[in-house]
Predict the structure.
Amino acid sequence: MTDSESPKIHIDSDWKAQAQAEKEKLTEASKSKESDNQATAGPGEMPPANFDTLLGTFVTQALFSLGAIADPRTGQPSLNLDLARHSIDMLSVLDEKTKGNLSKEEEENLASTLYELRTRYMQISQAARQA
């Protein structure tokens, strides 16, 4: 094959710049969406209205009732097993009613949270009966 017969390769260097610009644009859009979904509230601001915040609300109530979080007024933990059980039951209802509608991460978070709270409830209620 002679030089005149060999295929000519035309390299368009501009496509690399376009591809890189598109990649950067997609990365930036992804980061923006991620930060919107995981936004946390600063001091004096309301937390985002999302599943994690809802879950956190019930967990905080349960832990407070189990004496894991001290009462801010007295500085002492208080134990209210009925209220703790109610908060755990509410999480169970949430688990049941959201089946198939949560992301994998949300499902795993809810399942592990319920397991941990139920375990802690059983330990504390058994210790309270023995006291």
